[in-house]
TrEMBL record:
Keywords: Cell outer membrane, Membrane, Receptor, Signal
Organism for this UniProt entry: Chryseobacterium lactis
Keyword check for Methyltransferase: no
Pfam families in UniProt: OMP_b-brl_3
Domain Outer membrane protein beta-barrel residue range list: 286-729
Gene Ontology, cellular component aspect: cell outer membrane
Protein name, as recorded: TonB-dependent receptor
Entry annotated with the keyword Membrane: yes
TM ranges: none
Location relative to the cell: Cell outer membrane
């Protein structure tokens, strides 16, 4: 370093004398001081990963970068988890992304990692965030530059699993004077292949089903964002995002056995289309030089999914019970959401920050399910399974946060969110309900920076989880005539209380202890309800059959119904130990974590609120008892090795392991995955070859047994091993500032579609 640097440092310290100044001029050079920037650190309610200072953030995309971020993991390439348990909600520059989950993942995969300044992980979000249950927030902060110009990315990828799945995408960004914007487009096709094994019964009865599902998909998505800087203090923006998915000729083929005897075969052919359009208008004005600002949003979301299926069951025996049957089913879902919010952020001269806001969401859903059954060679309406369900929901939210630094070492943030929910559900000409409830959701965060090496923080948060809109639609999806899933319009919102204690050592090692309480809990997956229905035996024309004495002949059918419903409460204690560190002059970068969990699930399901027996029919349901205490662990090991001094070859080796885990629906088997990738950077080109789940071990297996001996086992093998190669080309001015990312008023609704 030069002499002037030393002089300036001495001057500002207040200890420079005239003689010292004179003497300092005689110094020609001093030894350079090597100050290493902190790559991973705790700050307030979040953990910050400084991507710009990390050696792994070169020549990759944002999704792969997130997978290498401490506390974040992904084992399927489609979803992101925080601490291995919480779903991740993505924000960009403190604004929630305005697109559905699949479009969001594709956007992250097409965004160059060089555009990222830092990644913030908020394991327990504050009252200002529109999240539910135990969801955490990942805030991606983009690099800033005021250069005019344009840039873009073109990406092509080919993935080989059971089938070949190609996809491509492009993004374009521009900035010129007061105007800035970005756009993106993605297209791809993939066919999902799954193999099923289902078995259920009791010590006296055994039902087994084996089969497969081929689900071809064509996907198109994209959108644009335009921002106009009215003045240095005011900005106006508009964004639009869309996604279209077409899945025709999806086939589910199941062969069924009862007590070891081959009985029938069920084939379900399904055509489905999904359309999603969202619009957002955003206005922002800065009210002072300290960073205070007022932000307002108006949003509209339109979602439409139309599914049509034809289900046939072919008898493979000559008995009178198993006979040919068929049904047509149409299950449309239309969602219209209108939303608005106003936020005011006030910063004071003493360093305190106030945030206050109000939001309003109104949602209409229309689900006109039609089902016809084969009778006398013709299809006639099935009155029990034909449902026109109309659901309306309004949510008014008011929230307030206060944040400040209390001392040099202690800082805090406190807030609350008050939500008023009004909803009505109407199954036309059958039944309905009205639910009105209010929730006060407090939040507290305390952070103690003990010294430069040690940091300790505590966070408390209360949230609710509302059911997804598709869960409310009272329709069935059939595996076989007696084995199906059943949605539930009567499911209640669950209440979550989250506490977390976090410790960090030397900005590299961390320990996270969390405790979650859930009331009115619903299972993370559907619960298997076994039972039997008894009703009149009918002939091929649908007429009742009588015996010689004129008595109605009754027949009994056993069924297995998967339903999502409230069952009771659960408690969960999690301990996560992790580290993020580079070795051998940043040649080898590691991101390791282990999660230890103790869970208690307690409750029961004794009735099915969706059951509506017809005339002369009765239904007997076996109570489903949940009394689970369970220890389990998971392990994530991410490694990036720089193979060349030119920093153009990288090797990635990632491993995930999860032990057996008892949950509400049964015991989930061991899962593990070994992923390997090789990356080559050639100027603006990046070539990435990957193998995911090399040994095909990431499949889903559940074993469930009840105290009375009833059991239900599921194995779903989706051919997880994937080989892929992708080519990415970045063009234009790579230092271009991104367009202002805008928060959407209907963000909270998007995750429920």
């Amino acid at each position: 370093m030069k002499t002037q640097i030393l002089i300036a440092a001495l001057f500002f310290s207040g200890f420079v004398t005239a003689q010292q100044k004179k003497d300092s001029l005689k110094v020609n050079t001093i030894e350079a001081v090597n100050i290493k920037k902190q790559v991973f650190k705790k700050q307030g309610d979040r953990l910050i990963y400084d991507v710009a200072s990390s050696p792994i953030a070169k020549g990759t995309n944002t999704f792969n970068l997130l997978k290498q971020t401490p506390m974040i993991s992904s084992i399927d390439g489609k979803t992101l988890k925080i601490l291995g348990k919480s779903d991740a909600i993505i924000y960009i520059n403190n604004k929630k992304t305005n697109m559905d989950s699949e479009a969001l993942i594709e956007m992250l995969k097409s965004t160059p990692s060089e555009d990222i300044q830092k990644i913030e992980v908020i394991t327990v979000p504050g009252s200002e965030f529109q999240v539910e249950s135990t969801e955490g927030v990942i805030n991606i902060v983009m690099k800033k530059s005021k250069n005019n110009g344009y840039n873009g990315t073109i990406k092509m990828q080919n993935e080989q699993g059971y089938y070949n799945n190609p996809n491509a995408g492009a993004s374009f960004n521009f900035r010129q004077g007061k105007w800035s914007g970005n756009s993106n487009f993605r297209t791809g096709s993939w066919t999902e292949r799954q193999k099923y094994s289902l078995s259920n019964g009791d010590p006296t009865f055994r039902n087994e089903s084996y089969g497969f599902n081929n689900d071809p998909n064509n996907n198109y998505g994209g959108g644009f964002n335009v921002d106009y800087e009215i003045s240095k203090k005011q900005s106006l923006g508009f964004s639009y995002n869309m996604r279209y998915n077409k899945s025709f000729n999806s086939i589910l083929d199941i062969t069924n056995w009862q007590n070891g005897i081959l009985t029938n075969r069920t084939v379900n052919n399904e055509d489905a289309q999904t359309r999603n359009h969202s619009f957002n208008l955003n206005y922002e004005i800065k009210t002072d030089s300290l960073g205070s600002k007022l932000t307002s949003n108006v949003s509209y979301l339109w979602f439409n999914r139309n599914k049509v299926s034809f289900n046939e069951s072919f008898p493979l025996t000559n008995d009178t019970i198993n006979k040919y049957s068929a049904l047509h089913q149409s299950v449309p879902q239309i969602i219209n959401n209108y939303a608005a919010n106003i936020d005011y952020l006030k910063k004071t001269a003493k360093g305190a920050t106030w945030l206050m806001g109000i939001s309003y969401n109104h949602t209409n859903t229309d689900n006109d399910t039609r089902q016809d059954k084969l009778q006398s060679g013709e299809f006639v309406p099935d009155s029990k399974q034909t449902n026109h369900f109309i659901y309306k929901e309004s949510i008014l939210g008011i929230y307030l946060n206060y944040e400040r630094k209390l001392t040099e070492k202690i800082s805090g943030k406190a807030g609350a969110r008050y939500e008023m929910t009004r909803s009505t559900g109407d199954i036309v000409d059958k039944t309905g309900f009205e639910r009105n409830y209010n929730n006060l959701l407090p939040y507290l965060n305390l952070n103690y920076a003990i010294n430069s090496d040690h940091n300790l923080s505590y966070t408390f948060s209360s949230r609710i989880r509302r059911p997804r809109f598709w869960e409310l639609n009272p329709s069935r999806t059939y595996f076989t005539p007696t084995n199906y899933t059943q949605n539930n319009p009567f499911i209640l919102a669950s209440k979550f209380y989250n506490q977390e204690l976090n410790y960090m050592y030397k900005n590299a090692y961390y320990a996270n202890l969390s405790f979650t309480m859930v009331e009115d809990a619903s299972a993370s997956d559907m619960l298997p309800l076994q039972g039997k229905s008894t009703g009149p035996k009918v002939d091929e024309n649908g007429n009742f059959i009588y015996d010689a004495d004129g008595n109605m002949i009754m027949e009994t059918t056993k069924f297995l119904r998967y339903i999502r419903t409230n069952y009771g409460k659960n408690r969960e204690l999690n301990l996560t130990l992790g580290m993020n560190k580079s070795w051998f002059k940043e040649i080898w970068t590691t991101n390791y974590s282990v999660n230890l969990k103790y869970s208690i699930y307690k409750g029961a399901v004794t009735e099915d609120p969706t059951s509506r027996p017809g005339p002369f029919e009765t239904e007997e349901l076996e109570p489903y008892i949940i009394d689970v205490k369970n220890y389990n662990m998971s392990l994530t090991l991410n490694n990036v090795v720089r193979l060349s001094s030119k920093k153009d070859w990288y090797l990635g080796v990632n491993y995930f392991f999860a032990s057996r885990e008892a949950m509400e629906g049964g015991v989930v088997g061991v899962r593990q995955s070994l992923d390997i990738n090789l990356k080559k950077i050639i100027g603006d080109w990046t070539i990435l070859a990957e193998v995911n789940d090399l040994f095909n071990q990431g499949f889903y297996r559940v074993e469930g047994i009840q105290p009375n001996g009833k059991y239900n086992n599921i194995t779903n093998f989706n051919y997880p091993r994937l080989f892929s190669i992708g080519v990415t080309y970045n063009f234009g001015n790579q230092k271009l500032k991104k367009a202002r990312e805008m928060k959407s008023a209907n963000d909270a609704v998007k995750s429920r579609t």
